[in-house]
Amino acid sequence: MSEINAIEVPKWGLSMEEGTVTVWRVSEGTSFRKGDLLCEVETSKITNELEAPFDGLLRRIVAQPGETLPVGGVLAVSASETVSEAEIEEFLSSRGAHPAPAAAPTQETAPAAAPAPTAAPTPTAPAVPKPAASSGSTLVPESLQGQTSGEVFATPHALKLAAKLSLDLDKVTGSGRAGRVSMQDVHNAIRAAGGSVATPPPPARSVLPGRTLKDDSEVDATPVARRLAGNLGINLHDCRATGSRGRVCEADVREAERKFGLVTTSPEPASDAESPVEFETVAFDSMRKAIGKRLQASKRDAPHFRLTADLEIDALLALRKQINAMVPSVKLSVNDFIVKACGAALLRVPEVNVQFDEQTQSVRRYTYADVSVAVALPSGLITPIVRNTDTRSLASVSEEVHSLVTKAKSGTLAPEEFQGGTFTVSNLGMYGVREFDAIINPPQAAILAVGAGAQRPVVVNGEVIPRTILTVTLSCDHRVIDGALGASFLAELKRFVESPALMLV
Amino acid sequence: MSEKYDVLVIGAGPGGYVAAIRAAQLGLRTAVVERDRLGGICLNWGCIPTKALLHGADVAHTLANLKPLGFTATGVDFDVAALVEFSRSVSERLSGGVGYLMRKNGVDVITGSARLTGKGVVDVDGAEYRADHVILATGARPRPVPGVIPDGDRVWTYFEALVPAELPKSLLVVGSGAIGVEFASLYADLGSEVTLVELAPQIMPAEDVEVADHVRTRFEKRGMRVRTSTSVSDIDVGPDAVTATLDGDAITVDRVLVAAGVQGNVEGLGLEELGVELDGGFVRTDQWCRTNVFGLYAIGDVAGAPCLAHKASHEGVLCVEKLAGVGHVAPLDHHYVPGCTYARPQVASLGLTEAQAAATGRELRVGRFDLTASGKALALGEPEGFVKTIFDATSGELLGAHMVGAEVTEQIQGFGIARSLEATADDLAEVVFAHPTLSEAMHESVLAALGRPLNT
């Protein structure tokens, strides 16, 4: 029983909606094992590697590099060798996926309906789809038949095809480098001589026995060979070792590359016609698009309500000053205290420490507090996460924020460093903003907007006295957090911020 | 509100300016503070201007040895002021080049003296700057010798030795590290009578003893007086001469050059107030160049030996890449920073000396090739020197390479690449070296270590 499986765009993180294929690491016709690297997929924020979810044979690449598909979209099809192209087409149309990217896509969708083609089609015929389902109907004209004698410079595929069709390669003119005969040359020769070719020329990548999947880290290889093999997705076990002292060398990897048909010619770059412009068009990069899309959806779908509180931070500032003055290795910012206080308050009010899953209409309540911190970048913003804010010391929170901010600015954050989190702190205090409100960062359900601390007059027992006040605004998603709940979170936050010693115990 | 940077570098020498470029390349808002001239000691008072003077010394040597080549030169004059002028112009040009690099990479250059007034807070002549990461790259300066006080006239440091008003008739060089040996060789070539004194049992104490002995022999052949295991005392600066005592022997010289190593520039930076830990006069750092203070790093000379420009540049890149979260950053193995001395003969080395390698207890394979058998060295008229390579007998790992002779400073990188790629003796033996080159000696040395030399 033959089975067809789709390889789909995975869902990496709740916020991921679509993915763009950047590069395939496995070619059509290659078998793979569960866990093998298949391709790289770029999401709105990162490029990640897609590992095979099962064992299989890659029969069809549906999404070419550069194509963007929604989560769950079919990237490729895996099926055993016994499954026909037509069956794959049927499978794909049932999934509503893209048609095959081959030269003549309509052909395979008409399985064996028309009679075998008559002889002598015109030489211009190749572009016209031939209604045939199997290679059985390839007609090799008599003039080309025979056995290839002696050495002919041809690709391995062309040699194989010629043997299969009983075709004499000596009669085919090669168009490759140094007159090398390719499969395309064979097909063209058949058509030119009045024969017909049943299937369209297969892509340069062709079915071959599976490759080794063993760990090749201990194969003796030169540094160049190892690096090249890694880039090409070639296992060093599949390379001969003709290098010095029995090592796999660069030439061996290149040979394997040819053997596996990974050599492809790059298409001509499209030339842009130059025309004078009066303005600069700045295309949105993926980060800009992601910000727009996600925050628009959040603002539209999540019923925001806002709660504002004034926090007295004189005690916090005194504690901060004391710690910073006495411990060289520590430099706490007011924001570090706020992040730590949020972590503590989130555990006190666990109903706020959640992620909202819109599809299942449920929330995930976490037992630890991963707090995202909004970092402004020249090209947008990103929210790296301080993990386990509740159990970290203030110094550790501070060190982590410090490191994450620089990584964010350098673009070196790893996906796990910014995906997830249950709550976000956005601080614009350093820009002198007194107070503001922020848009919730889904799938989180709340965000805290932090303004600048400043001395303000406060009335205590009928007397006006100066106090350092920091205004914070909590935005909540009313689908998840009700007003009283948000208020109790703010009350906890206020307690920790105004009695900062509580964060040290 | 004070300016806020992601990275602020103090000192624009070869460590600081390179760190600043790398930080800017990584998208970080970067500034570099320099109190004097861009390029630091290296460009202005060290590596570069000395090479310009040594080029002059080479010409002097060539002129003195014209006869075997069939030339006779008469009426050749030498004006030391012109050579100094050439040396200064080279520095000038390169310093301008650093300025261009800063502009090109978008690094702000702040002129003035920096002082840390808090963690991540730097005061430059009254203006306050803030930065998430502050990198100390303040370098080093000549270390004083007890009782020998440089006065800028009779008793020099390298600053004065680079810009002599006149050629000293006689020169006492105290200390035989790279700086002392280079100036000793330079002034000897220009015509001064040179005495080189070293406290340690060998000159160039960091080098392999065989290399040091070779250099000493050749210095002595040139008429230089070399004394090791000798201390200098009773320096008496007179109006026209300096007298000194070398372990009991009195000596009178025209000038004295103090070249007994360097000490870190750690003063006046506010380090004490911040509680920055020091180690022997240098800032203590971990393998990622971090100090014990939050957000504060130190690279290059101020962070300790080896005090070399290329070590500083390497640490600058390493430090910045680590703090920026770049993957695959490797700590620097201080043993494998190449060292070059541009005397005549040149010395270049990498890794362990034979004595250090033997002390590890490993079984060694040591290869040696004398340049007397090198066709190219003979043709250049400098057929003295050798290449010594030290390998671990079991693994084939290159433990050390020591070269002395013509243009060896340009060749040591070959061993550096080999070491970096973990090439074994066998790998190096397989390489085709071009003929005729000086570098063939490297190959022969490796073959000798493997017990199969071809040309000896």
From TrEMBL, chain A:
<protein>
    <recommendedName>
        <fullName>Dihydrolipoamide acetyltransferase component of pyruvate dehydrogenase complex</fullName>
        <ecNumber>2.3.1.-</ecNumber>
    </recommendedName>
</protein>
<feature type="compositionally biased region" description="Low complexity">
    <location>
        <begin position="97"/>
        <end position="117"/>
    </location>
</feature>
<keyword id="KW-0450">Lipoyl</keyword>
<comment type="similarity">
    <text>Belongs to the 2-oxoacid dehydrogenase family.</text>
</comment>
<feature type="compositionally biased region" description="Polar residues">
    <location>
        <begin position="134"/>
        <end position="148"/>
    </location>
</feature>
<feature type="region of interest" description="Disordered">
    <location>
        <begin position="89"/>
        <end position="148"/>
    </location>
</feature>
<dbReference type="InterPro" id="IPR004167">
    <property type="entry name" value="PSBD"/>
</dbReference>
<dbReference type="Pfam" id="PF02817">
    <property type="entry name" value="E3_binding"/>
</dbReference>
<feature type="compositionally biased region" description="Pro residues">
    <location>
        <begin position="118"/>
        <end position="129"/>
    </location>
</feature>
<dbReference type="InterPro" id="IPR003016">
    <property type="entry name" value="2-oxoA_DH_lipoyl-BS"/>
</dbReference>
<dbReference type="InterPro" id="IPR011053">
    <property type="entry name" value="Single_hybrid_motif"/>
</dbReference>
<dbReference type="Pfam" id="PF00364">
    <property type="entry name" value="Biotin_lipoyl"/>
</dbReference>
<feature type="domain" description="Peripheral subunit-binding (PSBD)">
    <location>
        <begin position="153"/>
        <end position="190"/>
    </location>
</feature>
<dbReference type="Pfam" id="PF00198">
    <property type="entry name" value="2-oxoacid_dh"/>
</dbReference>
<keyword id="KW-0012">Acyltransferase</keyword>
<feature type="domain" description="Lipoyl-binding">
    <location>
        <begin position="4"/>
        <end position="79"/>
    </location>
</feature>
<dbReference type="InterPro" id="IPR000089">
    <property type="entry name" value="Biotin_lipoyl"/>
</dbReference>
<keyword id="KW-0808">Transferase</keyword>
<feature type="region of interest" description="Disordered">
    <location>
        <begin position="193"/>
        <end position="217"/>
    </location>
</feature>
<dbReference type="InterPro" id="IPR001078">
    <property type="entry name" value="2-oxoacid_DH_actylTfrase"/>
</dbReference>
<dbReference type="InterPro" id="IPR023213">
    <property type="entry name" value="CAT-like_dom_sf"/>
</dbReference>
<feature type="domain" description="Peripheral subunit-binding (PSBD)">
    <location>
        <begin position="220"/>
        <end position="257"/>
    </location>
</feature>
TrEMBL record, chain B:
<protein>
    <recommendedName>
        <fullName>Dihydrolipoyl dehydrogenase</fullName>
        <ecNumber>1.8.1.4</ecNumber>
    </recommendedName>
</protein>
<dbReference type="Pfam" id="PF02852">
    <property type="entry name" value="Pyr_redox_dim"/>
</dbReference>
<dbReference type="InterPro" id="IPR004099">
    <property type="entry name" value="Pyr_nucl-diS_OxRdtase_dimer"/>
</dbReference>
<dbReference type="InterPro" id="IPR036188">
    <property type="entry name" value="FAD/NAD-bd_sf"/>
</dbReference>
<keyword id="KW-0676">Redox-active center</keyword>
<keyword id="KW-0274">FAD</keyword>
<dbReference type="InterPro" id="IPR050151">
    <property type="entry name" value="Class-I_Pyr_Nuc-Dis_Oxidored"/>
</dbReference>
<keyword id="KW-0560">Oxidoreductase</keyword>
<comment type="similarity">
    <text>Belongs to the class-I pyridine nucleotide-disulfide oxidoreductase family.</text>
</comment>
<keyword id="KW-0963">Cytoplasm</keyword>
<feature type="domain" description="FAD/NAD(P)-binding">
    <location>
        <begin position="5"/>
        <end position="316"/>
    </location>
</feature>
<dbReference type="InterPro" id="IPR016156">
    <property type="entry name" value="FAD/NAD-linked_Rdtase_dimer_sf"/>
</dbReference>
<dbReference type="InterPro" id="IPR012999">
    <property type="entry name" value="Pyr_OxRdtase_I_AS"/>
</dbReference>
<dbReference type="InterPro" id="IPR006258">
    <property type="entry name" value="Lipoamide_DH"/>
</dbReference>
<feature type="domain" description="Pyridine nucleotide-disulphide oxidoreductase dimerisation">
    <location>
        <begin position="337"/>
        <end position="445"/>
    </location>
</feature>
<keyword id="KW-1015">Disulfide bond</keyword>
<keyword id="KW-0285">Flavoprotein</keyword>
<dbReference type="InterPro" id="IPR023753">
    <property type="entry name" value="FAD/NAD-binding_dom"/>
</dbReference>
<dbReference type="Pfam" id="PF07992">
    <property type="entry name" value="Pyr_redox_2"/>
</dbReference>
<dbReference type="InterPro" id="IPR001100">
    <property type="entry name" value="Pyr_nuc-diS_OxRdtase"/>
</dbReference>
<dbReference type="GO" id="GO:0004148">
    <property type="term" value="F:dihydrolipoyl dehydrogenase (NADH) activity"/>
</dbReference>
<keyword id="KW-0520">NAD</keyword>
